[in-house]
Amino acid sequence: MSDSQQYIELAADIRIWASELGFAQVGVSSIDLGEHPRYLERWLDAGYHGEMEYMAKHGPRRSHPDQLIPGTLRVLSLRMDYLESDTQPLQVLASSEKGYVSRYALGRDYHKLIRKRLAQLARRIEERVGGQYRAFVDSAPVLERAIAEQAGLGWIAKNTMLINPSAGSWFFLGEIYTDLPLSTEVAPINNHCGSCTACLEVCPTQAFVGPYVLDARRCISYLTIEHAGSIDPELRPLMGNRIFGCDDCQLFCPWTKFAQDTEEHDFKPRHQLADSDLVELFLWTEELWLQRTEGSALRRIGHNRWLRNIAIALGNADTSDSIISALKSRAEHPQALVREHVTWALQQHQERATQALSC
User: Which reaction does it catalyse (predicted)?
Assistant: First the structure.
């Protein structure tokens, strides 16, 4: 059997193995990422990454897979669906007393699960043909959406998300770097955004500078997860009840209707996080918070930022005795970060009450 025939058969087997491991699709990318490295440089030069210094510190290794892992010739790009469609995200967003958690974070943290599956796939390939492999899931400087686009998994849309024409954008990505010369003859998926600007217009904080350009410093996902300090008071009212991440640019994308429900039990919502009252979440003690967020992506922000985010949402909520009482219970919190945002939230309710009396 010729090498080319061997790799054709291997590619077919990889698709089967990936499906058995719960992946919805797999593709192969070369290590030449075209214009994407230059786009990244311009984005970083503009300072749109904010406090995410890790985006810049790895230099060319993020844009050149063979510099990150010497000897790399190809990158396997895989996606796994995570949406649980019956969580009614729009209803939660419309209820000011509810806390909105980005749909990807409702269940168990995806990093370990997907990395384990990638490692299993890599072992099966190695057992068949040998070779070297490294698996990544947000764990290294990798331009995962650029790689996925070149691997034929979708196109990078105006909201900077990867969209698949038969699955929308509600999926995780993972990569396997390998020294195997697998075929990359995949027809790219054309960009189908057209003249649509729904994602740009619906962004609560207007974080998009323009199509395909996101200023992370205004993005609610960045503010509630990556940003460690005080949140700009001008942006707080725009955040609504979003306490961990934001999905608006996906929720209102026309391609969302093609999203596939996840088959992974670990991605199912836990502790009623898909539809929880803000007051209840705000009153979780740190001990209870640690218990309820074990194995969850929520853990990365810590309890103090959790309280910071919910305080803002409570400040934006319709006034009620329970909300005022909950906020006052944290007014003397030992952390200045929490106290600042609780004070702001109480002021919002006071100002509304004053305005109501003057009408």
Answer: epoxyqueuosine(34) in tRNA + AH2 = queuosine(34) in tRNA + A + H2O
